[in-house]
Amino acid sequence: MRGPRALAVIASMLLFAAGSTAAGEGEPAAAPPADRPCALRAAPGVTMSEGFGGSAGREFAAATGEVRALTLLIDFPDKRAPYSARERYREFFPAVRQWFYRASYGKLRYVSTPVLRYIRMPRPFHSYGIGRGYGWRTHKAMMRDLLRVADRKIDFSGYDLVNVLVTPNAGPPAEQAVLSVTWTGASAVTTDDGAGLDRVSLVYGHDQSGARVLSHENGHAFGLPDLYSVKDFGHTDTLAGQWDGMSLDWGLQGDLFAWHKWRLGWIDDWQVVCVRDPGARSVHLTPVEVPGGRKAAVIPLGRTHAYVVEARAARGNDSEACREGVLIYRVRTDVDSGHGPVTVEDANPRSTACEYSSATFNSLNDAPFASGGRFTDAGRGLTVEVLGRDPDDDGWTVRITTARRLWDGS
Question: Could you give phi then psi for residue 11, rounded to 5 degrees?
């Protein structure tokens, strides 16, 4: 079993306290604009809300076009790198760049500029007190020391985010404690050329997710929350399972939910069917893993709740997917990162699948609905039926029926 990764949600909360412009706790969520009725707005005061329009100023990086990352490698006097900087860098690149290109349908062009040497930190690793979920003060101390030994030789300006690849022998093995973390929302330090280190992803050890641990951490830099449970990691298997890289990033299904791709600008509005009016309608959905076509049907339940229906296939970033079919999940914009903002509906709640993928996190591996499958929310008069699969494009047709309008948009 793999332990929970370092809590980026804690980092975000601390940065809010340090002066981020997050809105007040008591404000209600705003209604989405009339021309985007299913694009639920970010809920004020919620850490990395799953809603749209939630980034305050430059808190998060834009996830379309050319995204420039400065990638540094560090070791310590008491933890010297066991192999070359080039070898360590190749553990993540070009894999991370390729992952984002596929996930974004080519809309994110990830450019990593590496400094292919280890930067020796001025103090021993143990002196920083780095542990799972380490705090803002420790992070600031590390960044301050990093600039002491690197700033004069490295131009930090002009980058959207900074990756710090730590020598893998610093800290415990990943199966004991995952230390990787992303800090966003405030600058830990400012460089000589005036650049603020305000979006920094640090990767420690050898994570069993391989290069995807950095894709996950960079996801935070783009504003995506943790979908695993920070309070009860074992409970993660009843939330999003292995269906999104922001949940269990070592899982079989390594891509992102359509909702996340829509938020990041990788899916256009026309590719999302907004189901608001009562009655029955059929929708053809092409798999999230491939470009083109309709990608999701969104059924809003209120200002902060919605169901999302999408198709998943063993293609692209999900080439090792355990099951294919129609995935249905519920999004809440009023739930903090790490506390279950997305929960997947399990088509087969009494079974698990592909046990080899994880020791204890397999209950949602067979969550997609197959032909003839049916999801019902009786209390809301909502039914989603899977009519069948189109062999020409691996897409699925669903019929969505609502007895009444579930939310009037007010």
Answer: -55, -45
pLDDT tens digits, one per residue of 302-313: 999 999 999 999
Collapsed DSSP state (helix, strand, coil) of residue 126 = helix
Buried b (16+ CB within 10 A) or exposed e, 29-63: beebeeeebbbbbbbbbbbbbbbbebbeeebbbeb
The predicted structure's pLDDT at residue 56? 53
Rounded-to-integer distance, Cα 214 and Cα 38, Å: 30
Residue 131 has a pLDDT of 87
Cα 176–chain centre separation: 22
Say what the pTM is. Answer: 0.92
d(CA 219, CA 225): 8
In the chain, which residues have pLDDT < 50? 1-25
Query: What phi, psi does 12 have (nearest 5°)?
Result: -65, -45
Q: Which residue has the tokens 């790198």?
A: 81
> Residue 20: what pLDDT?
30
Residue 309: how many CA atoms within 13 Å on its side-chain side? 32
